[in-house]
Design goal:
The structure holds 5 protein chains of 5 kinds. Chain B is mostly helical. In chain B, 57% of the residues lie in helices and 5% in strands. In chain B, strand 1, helix 19 and strand 2 form a beta-alpha-beta unit. In chain B, helix 1 runs antiparallel to helix 13, helix 9 runs antiparallel to helix 11 and helix 23 packs across helix 24. Chain B starts with 6 loop residues before the first helix and ends in a 5-residue tail after the last helix. Chain C has a domain of 74 residues. Chain C is built from 7 helices and 1 strand; from the N terminus they run βααααααα. The two termini of chain C are 32 Å apart. By secondary structure, chain D is of the alpha/beta class. Chain D has a 5-stranded parallel β-sheet with strand order 5-2-1-9-20, sandwiched between helices. A 5-stranded parallel β-sheet of chain D has the order 11-18-12-13-14. The longest helix of chain D has 21 residues. Chain D is elongated, with a radius of gyration of 22 Å. Chain E is globular, with a radius of gyration of 20 Å. The two termini of chain E are 39 Å apart. By secondary structure, chain E is mainly α. Classes of the chains: A alpha/beta, B mainly alpha, C mainly alpha, D alpha/beta, E mainly alpha. Chains in contact: A-C, A-D, A-E, B-C, C-D, C-E, D-E. The interface between A and D is medium-sized, with 20 and 15 residues. Strand 1 of chain C pairs parallel with strand 17 of chain D, so a sheet runs across the interface.
Chain lengths: 354, 611, 114, 340, 235
């Protein structure tokens, strides 16, 4: 593999990322599966980078999952998005920091639609006014949360406690990245590094001492497919797509998978468990699964945050192999413990713990 | 009774070949179908056997058919076959006459001059000896011709001869030696014993003046006996097997036995009856495309040797041109189809989809018109037929106007009889449901199969050339003779395939000036487009077509008429003569009467895209 | 084993690396004209069988080249060998021979599991 | 005697210079490179008959040598000013020329395949362009890929940078189809064991003998043509490439591993032509190629009187078409000058 | 109005289809084309043909419901088309006309409306921890089950504000905000879409012989949630 082509691409696709004063919008999926990651993001921005990031309890879902499973009409989602913009405008912010890739894609799609069809914008302004009495301005800057971490990756590394290296051998850890489809596939210019070779996670991983593995199915969708996962009888689609990715990455023996998408890390995590249940197959080393991380978790680990504080116990596929390689100190006994240190309920291992 | 050891090669050979023939012919005859066996039983003591004897005499001995084709070649074959036959008969008469007994062993008759040196002393002996010399001279003249034919076959009107294999070479060499050695042996004996006649005696004298004959008498008779023995021994592995088997064939054929769809005793007999004379090579148009190893003679040879490949078996137009020329009268097309059936018997499709009722229900009608797949590629024929039906005020059902199964003939031509049967059943059901009395067909390929393989009693199948002739006879078609010189090309399936030569000509005579050509009717060319050949390449087809076209062009016609959409399409592609189907010519005449001004007429007549 | 209510789906993608070319090379060796197919579809347009049943003779070439032997075997049974395709083919491909060759070759390889 | 300045010393420039000299004019040919011949220098063999490019170049070169006109190598035009029906041309070297007419033959540039990111040119080791392959096709060159082995399976991708909104080029580059067929045949001759595939959308065999060559590629060289635009290439561990396309005629996605991927790069007007257009103040089209007065009768006329166009600065062209276009340019210049 | 014309009213259709040249680049990387008998190129081909009967067939077929809306097709199309957007327009029209109930996959819209749709309007989120019932989501595994059963404590452990007031993950969306969402649905046709889905599903459920249509509707919903006829990918 040569670098010349990638360098050109990364140079061609550099997007503008606001450097402070963000209006944060959360993700419905992430808050269910990785609520700790969102908290970690806020902590990094506020505590480590001293940034101003505003949260408003009134913002709701962007309704993107409904929109992409086609039960929410385009006008409706545009107006819901316009309402988020109104909240941002009212709070005096111009920069949107988006936790969710689906939302990120939707914000971009809608803003682009309004650019192309000004009548549509007027129509939505009227709808919003009529429904809520609110008015809004289009954000100056829409960045995905991973864009912001990417922007400050060197600052984060300056405060590192660990790096993405094997603490025993000193060798970089091999990490495969998975970018959410709606990050840049629709609008390559809206993503750091474009659609084909996004730099957003690569930049983080490389800055933090890891090695990025480019495997053949890197660009392939995790298989969420909205309605394809939401309905049980369609889930064969979802698992099959993830499986295709695992098969493709397996020969490279990756130490971890990192993702910037809400759904993907959950799917890549859970489908490893299902495949082991169904076929007895594991893709990681020593018969265990490949740990799957959100970029915030990855950043948190580098900064030395406690994995259980970040919610890494909510992964089905064990993250311990990665923690051990990085030489991170953690208390295994507290994995399933509550704030008070007492065990919460009982995890039924059901014979499988990837 | 005096005896000498040289008789053994001959005697052993004779015993071997006699028992071999008895065994193999019995096997073949036992493997005939029950019906065929009863045919033999019921015919054996009838006139049919006499007819067969007559045919054996005319064909196996005198080679009448070859004579007709080429006198020199006929003479050669006759001198050898008939001469040898006479030699054996007269030799025996000589022996019987001398010993006054009919129970003389064969070798006594064959080697008579050796055993009875003084036979010429009686008058009858003299006559017989003279006859023997005449016969020998007759045969030797044939042998000389045969030698010469090997060097220069053109003299015999043959462009090609067959290639030989080992068994043939042994048999051929021994055959070529038999008569010169007989002549030598007889002359030597005559030189010693002063017997013989006008040929052997003087020759014996001359030999005697050159060498001491006593020392060579036994060796030359040995050589003669050996050549006979060798010939008999080589017979089963050589093409000369045809000599005895052909006789059986002629009898069975006269009893009404024909090649079936299955390989059996009779088809084996046919195969062994091939003399590999190679006459079929000359009539085969495949040679025009430089394809020289797939002709009937080779295919029959490969069948005998069990090494026939699909590449050869299927590389034949089945035009049937070779068949009338075959001196043995073999059913060459049928033999090939039998093999094709065998080769493809595992691949017959069931065409389940025909049962799903996608096809329209048959309306009630008197006349059905079936254009055929090929005709759908020449829409002008369909257009013409529609117009003709209209002009003649015929109510008809155009059966394959929209969706119809193929007639089945193309499948049959490649041996897929089982599959064809499914299509036939399907079409038959539709035809019968219409209550029609007449089925008019535009494609000779369909015509043949409708005629022969669809059991529809009460329904008359007519090719449109027959049908149009009939309409004309009833004065239902306008007649308008055009001043055009036209050659009629006989389609294979219509002409040789179905025997329809005259109807199209009678019809055309009313519309154009028909000129006749050398290769027409039975010997008409194939256009090269035949569906029966699945191996031939397009450029090879074109070469065959061009050769035929060249011959037609030499007559400077203004149009080529045919009665087959495939022939039309094939010839039309050569692009140097307007080619029209009979129906189109009738259509032109109708239109000329109706609407056209003289200039348009001129254009129509001269233009190859007249319609 | 746990029942999840769904299973992993087999890929529909043509995986060329799994392609067994024996049938193809057999047919092309015997009928090289078949190499020149342009996929123009003239054959399918004129096909008599296609009038009665969905039968895409153009796809025979593709099925053969993509190793879809199962599909090929059942599809090819539909052909009536009427010969129209051959006459309209702009490359003069001997399609009827191709059909017969495929029928034969499939049978030949079936015993050794294509 | 009239003086004509020709900008661009590729084959169009060379040919029109010769023709104008023969017509009795004084010609100055300006070329920015150190040698004449332009893009032809990069090519080894020409379609459709595999004529060595060298041969064409040498012939043209000899033709130039035999004629008396001035050639300015390593020279770039700085400005072109119109003054009383004359053109004042200044070069960066400070030379000043006065011309009665100008011929622009600034040629084309090859599409930069790095812009089709999904094919990984300059990222994956065994992805090359048709121009790279052309160099490899010189006799005696080494064709081996990973671990010194010859590629077993090779794929050609048609329409790279042509007919592609994403690359900004809506037009067809015309010559890539036949180039692909030509190169596939050459590769097959060198590597008879290799399997070769061409992924195409349409095969535009517009020229004399092109279709015949395509047929030969199928018939004699067993090159397989798959209708489907390549969607992406990805490198595997062994450096082979996993490529994906839809086999559109089967209606199914298709993937395969190849050892070498050749991108048939299209033609673009390029920088040279853009600067020429700017300096001469002549119009160009959306595609970037220079605008001709009309498509049929005045294809050598630019938007400005006295400035003529020759060759592939006006549209993608084959060598053959370029030479013809250059000759016709010379003829148009000549008749225009006579009328003056 | 003709179906094609109705499609052109959808802005996403206008964006998604310029003119397709059938190159197949979309199908080549389409995740759905890989696992379903689905070819986005052909979808574009059919709508481009403006053949009304084919478009109607499409609107009634499973084919339009296979797409996962990952939008990978958008990235590569040399004509700047996006089959994903065409699919969205087709799905909208199919629901408007009630054609969606003609296909197995289309009928699933009801269950999605019931879960996701109602979550959005009444809770302000698409997905809630309460939805992840282990029996319906066995793939969430033992950890998922543990989270589900102990959700209050687990979410508290990672500083989520589950069902709480104020900011934070999983917070309760204030009533006034939910009212605004309700109004937006009312005004922008969101409820109209919901009603169409309910209405046509009810008709279909009746014609399919489900009895509890007027009350709980659970049998039909369970049916659509779990049925897979296994004919969605060719061998």
């Amino acid at each position: 593999m040569q670098n010349e082509g990638k360098q050109k691409i990364w140079k061609d696709y550099q997007k503008e990322i606001a450097d402070d004063h963000y209006f944060y919008v959360r993700s419905c999926i992430r808050q269910n599966f990785f609520p700790g990651s969102e908290q970690t993001f806020l902590k990094i921005l506020r505590a480590e980078l001293n940034k101003d990031i505003f949260e408003n309890p009134h913002h709701t879902t962007c309704s993107g999952i409904g929109y992409h499973s086609d039960i929410v009409p385009f006008d409706t989602i545009q107006t819901i998005v316009a309402r988020q913009f109104a909240l941002m405008t009212e709070a005096g912010y111009r920069n949107l920091a988006v936790s969710c890739i689906t939302s990120f894609g939707i914000y971009n799609e809608i803003i682009e639609t309004w650019k192309e069809f000004p009548n549509e914008l007027e129509k939505i302004r009227n709808y919003l006014k009529k429904a809520t009495g609110r008015e809004f301005k289009i954000p100056q800057n829409v960045s995905h949360a991973s864009d912001i971490i990417y922007k400050f990756r060197e600052d984060i590394f300056a405060r590192k406690k660990y790096s993405l290296t094997n603490h025993e051998t000193g060798k970089p850890l091999k990490i495969v990245e998975h970018i959410g489809c709606h990050y840049a596939k629709m609008f390559p210019g809206k993503g750091v590094g474009g659609a084909e070779f996004p730099h957003v996670l690569v930049g983080m991983i490389e800055s933090w001492g890891g090695e990025v593995i480019d495997y053949p199915e890197r660009r392939h969708c995790c298989g969420f497919g909205f309605r394809q996962y939401l309905v049980m009888s369609n889930r064969g689609y979802s698992i099959s797509n993830s499986k295709k990715k695992f098969e493709s990455m397996e020969p490279y023996r990756p130490d971890a998978i990192a993702s910037n998408c809400p759904g993907c890390p959950m799917f890549l995590d859970r489908w490893q468990y299902v495949i082991e249940e169904m076929e007895g197959k594991t893709y990681g080393q020593n018969g265990r699964g490949i740990p799957v991380l959100t970029y915030e978790e990855m950043a948190g680990l580098v900064l030395g945050y406690d994995p259980w504080d970040m919610g890494m116990q909510m992964h089905q596929t064990d993250v311990e192999p990665l923690l051990d390689k990085m030489g991170i100190e953690y208390n295994p006994d507290l994995k399933y413990a509550g704030k008070d240190g007492k065990q919460i309920g009982q995890v039924k291992m059901a014979g499988c713990k990837c | 009774m005096e005896t000498t050891s040289f008789i053994w090669p001959f005697t052993i050979g004779l015993l071997f070949i006699t028992s071999f023939l008895v065994v193999i012919i019995s096997i073949w005859i036992t493997s005939l179908s029950r019906i065929d066996k009863s045919r033999i039983v019921h015919s054996i003591f009838t006139r049919k056997s006499l007819m067969a004897i007559g045919e054996v005499f005319m064909e196996s001995l005198l080679h009448r058919k070859i004579f007709r084709k080429n006198r020199m070649l006929g003479y050669m074959h006759m001198s050898l076959a008939f001469g040898w036959f006479l030699l054996i008969i007269v030799g025996h008469i000589e022996a019987w006459n001398y010993y006054h007994s009919f129970s003389v062993p064969a070798y006594k008759a064959i080697f008579f001059p050796y055993f009875v040196p003084a036979s010429a002393s009686t008058n009858s002996g003299k006559v017989l000896a003279a006859s023997m010399d005449i016969i020998l001279l007759f045969i030797l003249s044939g042998v000389l011709l045969a030698y010469y034919k090997r060097l220069n076959s053109k003299l015999f009107g043959m462009k090609k001869t067959t290639k030989l294999k080992a068994g043939d070479r042994i048999a051929l060499s021994s055959l070529w030696l038999i008569f010169p050695l007989r002549f030598l042996a007889e002359s030597v004996s005559a030189g010693i014993h002063h017997n013989g006649s006008f040929l052997s005696q003087p020759c014996g004298q001359i030999f005697a003046s050159l060498i001491p004959l006593q020392s060579i008498e036994a060796p030359v008779w040995w050589a003669y006996s050996c050549s006979l023995g060798l010939f008999f021994m080589a017979l089963p592995v050589s093409r000369y097997m045809h000599i005895p088997v052909e006789v059986v064939l002629i009898f069975l054929r006269n009893y009404g036995i024909r090649v079936k769809k299955r390989i059996g005793g009779f088809s084996r007999i046919q195969v062994y009856s091939c003399s590999r004379c190679g006459i079929c090579l000359d009539s085969c148009q495949m040679t025009h495309a430089a394809i020289k190893d797939t002709q009937s003679v080779y295919v029959l040879k490969h069948i005998r040797n069990r090494n026939l490949t699909d590449e050869k078996l299927f590389n034949c137009l089945l035009c049937g041109r070779c068949q009338p020329d075959c001196p043995v009268g073999l059913e060459l097309n049928n033999l090939r189809i039998t093999q094709r059936i065998e080769s493809t018997k595992e691949y017959n499709s069931s065409y389940e989809y025909l049962k799903n009722g996608k096809v329209a229900i048959s309306p009630q009608t008197e006349v059905i018109y079936f254009a055929g797949c090929m005709t759908h590629l020449t829409p002008s024929i369909i257009k013409s037929m529609k117009e003709i039906f209209k002009v003649a005020n015929v109510k008809y059902w155009f059966m394959d106007e929209d969706k119809t199964a193929c007639c089945g003939r193309p499948l049959m031509q490649v041996g897929q009889y089982g599959a064809a049967g499914k299509l036939i059943d399907h079409n038959l059901e539709r035809i019968l449901a219409s209550g029609a009395k007449k089925l008019v067909v535009s494609c000779p390929i369909c015509y043949k199969v409708f005629n022969e393989d669809y059991s529809m009693s009460g329904i008359r199948v007519q090719h449109h050339s027959e049908y149009l002739l009939e309409l004309m006879a009833e004065n239902r078609l306008p007649v308008n003779k055009m001043p055009l010189k036209v050659i009629y090309h006989d389609p294979c399936e219509l002409g040789r395939g179905s025997g329809i030569y005259h109807q199209p000509r009678l019809l055309l005579d009313e519309y154009v000036e028909l000129i006749s050509v050398k290769n027409e009717k039975e010997s008409a060319f194939c256009c090269g487009g035949s569906l029966a050949n699945i191996k031939i390449h397009m450029n090879e087809r074109n070469q065959i077509r061009d050769k035929a076209m060249d011959e037609y062009l030499s007559y400077q016609p203004e149009m080529l008429a045919t009665a087959c959409p495939l022939c039309k399409k094939t010839f039309a592609k050569s692009n140097n003569l307007p080619v029209h189907d009979i129906a189109e010519i009738v259509y032109m005449a109708i239109h000329k009467n109706k609407i056209m001004n003289p200039e348009e007429q001129k254009f129509m007549e001269k233009s190859k895209i007249g319609l | 084993m746990k029942d999840f209510g769904y299973t992993v789906i087999k890929q529909r993608t043509i995986d060329y690396d799994q392609f067994d070319g024996r049938l193809l090379s057999d047919v092309l060796r015997m009928e090289p004209s078949f190499k020149t197919c342009l996929s123009c579809g003239g054959c399918t347009a004129t096909c008599s069988a296609n009038d009665l049943v969905s039968f895409n003779i153009r796809r025979i070439n593709l099925s053969l080249r993509r190793g879809e032997t199962y599909e090929l075997e059942s599809e090819i049974q539909k052909c009536m060998l009427c010969g129209k395709c051959m006459l309209v083919c702009p490359r003069g491909i001997n399609i009827r021979n191709v059909i017969m060759l495929i029928k034969k070759s499939i049978l030949k390889y079936k015993s050794v599991q294509l | 005697m009239k003086h004509i300045v020709i900008i661009g010393g590729g084959i169009a420039g060379m040919e029109s210079a010769c023709a104008l000299t023969d017509a009795g004019h004084w010609v100055t040919l300006i070329e920015k490179e150190a040698q004449l011949g332009g893009k032809l220098n990069q090519w080894s063999f020409l379609f459709p008959d595999f004529t060595p490019a060298e041969k064409i170049k040498d012939t043209l070169f000899d033709k130039c040598q035999e004629r008396d006109f001035s050639i300015l190598l390593k020279t770039e035009v700085k400005s072109v000013q119109t003054h009383q029906k004359k053109f004042n041309i200044e070069t960066f070297g400070g030379q000043k020329l006065e011309a009665d007419a100008v011929v622009v033959s600034s040629g084309y540039e090859l599409f930069d395949a790095r812009r089709k990111e999904e094919y990984g040119y300059k990222i994956y080791d065994h992805v090359i362009t048709s121009a790279d392959l052309e160099k490899l096709l010189r006799p005696g060159s080494d064709l081996s890929v990973a671990a010194g082995k010859n590629p077993k399976r090779i794929a050609f991708v048609h329409c790279v940078g042509s007919r592609d909104e994403k690359s900004g080029n809506h037009y067809c580059s015309k010559v890539c189809c036949i180039t692909g067929v030509k190169q596939a045949i050459e590769l097959k001759k060198r590597l008879p064991e290799a399997e070769i595939f061409c992924f195409y959308m349409d095969l535009r065999m517009y020229g004399k003998h092109f279709e015949e060559l395509y047929r030969e590629a199928q018939e004699k060289f067993d090159i397989q043509f798959i209708r489907g635009r390549l969607s992406e290439a990805a490198e595997k561990m062994d450096k082979s490439l996993l490529i994906k396309a839809e086999d559109t005629l089967s209606g199914r996605p298709l993937k395969m591993n190849v050892d070498l991927l050749v991108l048939l790069v299209g033609m673009e007007a390029g920088k040279g032509t853009a600067t020429a257009a700017a300096k001469c103040s002549i119009e160009y089209e959306d595609s970037g190629f220079l605008k001709t007065n009309d498509t049929f009768l005045f294809s050598n006329f630019s938007s400005q009187e006295g400035i003529f166009l020759a060759g592939s600065c006006t549209a993608p062209m084959s060598v053959n078409d370029t030479i013809l276009h250059a000759r016709s340019a010379a003829m148009e210049v000549n008749s225009w000058l006579r009328k003056q | 109005m003709q179906l094609y014309e109705q499609l052109t009213q959808d802005i996403r259709f206008e964006e998604g289809l310029n003119s397709c040249m059938n190159c197949g680049i979309c199908t080549a990387i389409c995740p759905a084309a890989e696992f379903y008998d689905y070819d986005p190129r052909m979808i574009a081909g059919i709508v481009q043909s403006k053949d009304e009967s084919q478009i109607e067939e499409l609107l009634k077929s499973d084919a339009i419901w296979y797409c996962g809306e990952c939008m990978s097709c958008k990235t590569r199309c040399p004509r700047g088309n996006c089959t994903g957007l065409i699919i969205m327009a087709l799905r909208s029209l199919s629901q408007e006309l009630g054609f969606f109930t003609e296909s197995e996959k289309g009928r699933q819209q009801l269950v999605i409306k019931r879960v996701i749709g109602e979550n959005i309007v009444y809770r302000g989120y698409c997905i809630l921890p309460e939805n992840l019932i282990p029996e319906l989501h066995p793939e969430q595994g033992p950890v998922g089950e543990w989270i589900f059963e102990n959700r209050k404590e687990v979410y508290k452990r990672v500083d989520a504000n589950y069902c709480g007031e104020g900011t934070g993950a999983l917070r309760k969306i204030p009533k006034e905000s939910l009212d605004e969402i309700y109004q937006i649905f009312e005004i922008t046709g969101g409820f109209e879409r919901f009603d169409q889905i309910e209405h046509f599903s009810k008709l279909k459920a009746r014609s399919m012989g489900f009895s509890d249509v007027d009350e709980e509707f659970t049998d039909y919903i369970n049916h659509t949630y779990t049925t897979n006829n296994g004919k969605h990918n060719r061998p």
